[in-house]
Amino acid sequence: MQQRYATNPAQIPGMTTADLRAQYLVPEIFVPGEITVVYTHHDRIVLGGAVPAGRDLVLPGYPEIRSDYFLEHREVGIINVGGAGTVTADGETCTLVTGACLYLGRGVRDVVFADAGEGDESGAQFYLFSAPAHTAYPAALVSPGEGTVRELGDQATSNRRTLNQYIHENGVKSCQIVMGVTSLHEGSMWNTMPAHTHDRRTECYLYFDLPEDARVIHLLGEREETRHLVVADRQAIISPSWSLHSGVGTAAYSFIWAMAGENQTFDDMDAAPVTSLK
Question: I need a surface site. Which of 10, 74, 160, 263 has the fewest CB within 10 A?
């Protein structure tokens, strides 16, 4: 388990591009045959990926979280961005097609990731987002399109997008996690505008469905001290609660957004109008 320690806004002016990437970019999440996890001290989130690549992968406990098993004191949201796969939780198997979301609550002991079976040309790639949990909520599986769907933005401003909320106040119940998928329409590149902060929650982005030769320019930092990171397909960003976040791609793409912190109110945002950015 890789660890990332918390940062504060005063560090941004003195950070190089390499420093920013080391703190906030997770460049390699999906490694065939492995479970890869990163622990950030921002709201004690764990994010990562599991790629079975033809064999079962068991989610272990890690010394860094001081638990006998991973979900002893945690919950996790799982979204499959690869081919069909299965997640077996305490003996109960769920099949996740591409884009499906599975929530597992505190107290689930055994979690096993696998491909759906022989003949599947593209293997499963499971994205994991975990936060500490104070109680146990039941497991829940949501298929693509079955969450709360919101149409946002406008083609005139290049941010027409479909947002599918899976784990949230009015959907799948959790202690802290809020999680879903946003897909930009063809010809739209901005994932949100105006940029915003929510100083009560850390948010992580996983960018995917991005062409190999395309990139997302992800904005971060404070509104008067902005920086950017160049992000490729299936790379993730850790966005601290104090940092604004917005991004523009060289082509349309999708992204998983996931948050944990003080509240679960999706619209609890503090806008940073483009005229205020420097």
Answer: 10
Tell the residue number behind the tokens 């990332």, with chain if given.
4
pLDDT tens-digit map of 226-255: 999 999 999 999 999 999 989 999 999 999
What is the helix (H) or strand (E) element at residue 19, kind and residue range?
helix 17-24
Rounded CA separation 177/87 (Å): 19
Q: Is 42 annotated as a binding residue?
A: no
For 228: left if phi > 0, alpha if psi spans -120 to 50, otherwise beta; the answer is: beta
Provide the whole-model pTM. Answer: 0.93
pLDDT digits 0-9 by tens, 180-228: 999 989 888 888 877 878 878 899 999 999 999 999 999 999 988 999 9
Query: Is 196 assigned to a binding site?
Result: yes
Q: Answer yes or no: is 225 a known binding residue.
A: no
List, edge to edge, every strand of the sheet that includes 225-231.
225-231, 216-222, 246-249
CA distances from 21 to 237, 276, 277 (A): 9, 25, 21
Residue 228 annotated as lining a ligand binding site: no
Domains and CATH numbers, the chain: 28-276 (2.60.120.10)
